[in-house]
Amino acid sequence: MSNQENTLPEHPEGTPQAEVMPSVEELLKEAELKAQEHYDAWMYAKAETENIRKRGYQEAESARKFAIEGFSGELLAVKDALEATLASDNASLETLKSGVELTLKQLATVFDKFHIQEINPQGQKFDPHRHQAMAMVEADAEPNTVVMVMQKGYALHERVLRPALVSVAKAKDA
Q1: What does the pLDDT average to over 131-160?
Q2: Is the pTM here over 0.90, yes or no?
Q3: Half-sphere exposure (CA, 13 Å, Cβ side) for 62?
Q4: CATH number of the CATH domain containing 168
Q5: What's the confidence (pLDDT) of residue 145?
Q6: Residue 108's CB: how many other CB atoms inside 10 A?
Q7: Mean pLDDT over residues 131-141, rounded?
């Protein structure tokens, strides 16, 4: 063998260039490190997702539990007014009536604040989504018109909480 065959090819600058191939062990170790990094990142993301899910569940539970806190606080003033009216020892009927009227105004204010609307359909066309017909009666009104409200209904943001109980005019027999 000649001396030239055993030498490494020269780099353009004149220095010998050696091709260094990493060993299989080094490649495996590098791949294992990257796999461990990816696994750790995945486990962190998984744990973070689980924490967010738990936190969301707890917040939703708390929101459900205390959703009516503001409404309840406003109703306490109404209850206090009723108790004050009843606590009066020498109240006349007129005083009691006045106290109840003021309390009813307080309650109406609370309902307005929390978007609870009264459904009082007297004289309106019967709507089965907002009214519950208790009876059909002969009346001078147009058929399917509410002629009597037995109990007012209530809606919360347009969702019926309780339908109005009504009597509806029926067509007169010819």
Answers
A1: 94
A2: no
A3: 6
A4: 2.30.22.10
A5: 95
A6: 13
A7: 93
DSSP 8-state class, residue 158: T
d(CA 86, CA 45): 61
Domain contains 152: yes
Q: Look at residue 130 and tell me whether its pLDDT is greater than 90.
A: yes
Rounded CA separation 108/119 (Å) = 13
Q: How far apart are CA 18 and CA 123, in angstroms?
A: 101
Q: How far is CA 164 from the centre of its chain?
A: 26
pLDDT class for 15, splitting at 50, 70, 90?
low
Instruction: Judge whether 60 lies within some domain.
Output: no
Asked whether residue 78 is domain-assigned, the answer is: no
Is 141 part of any domain? Answer: yes
What is the tally of structural domains in the chain?
1
Q: How high is the pLDDT of residue 68? A: 87
Q: How many residues does this entry show for the chain?
A: 174
Domain residue limits at 126: 115-174
The DSSP-derived string for 62-131 is HHHHHTTHHHHHHHHHHHHHHHHHHH-TT--HHHHHHHHHHHHHHHHHHHHHTTEEEE--TTSBP-TTTE
- List pLDDT tens digits, range 23-63: 999 999 999 999 999 999 999 999 999 999 999 999 999 98
Closest CA to 169 of 148, 152, 145: 145
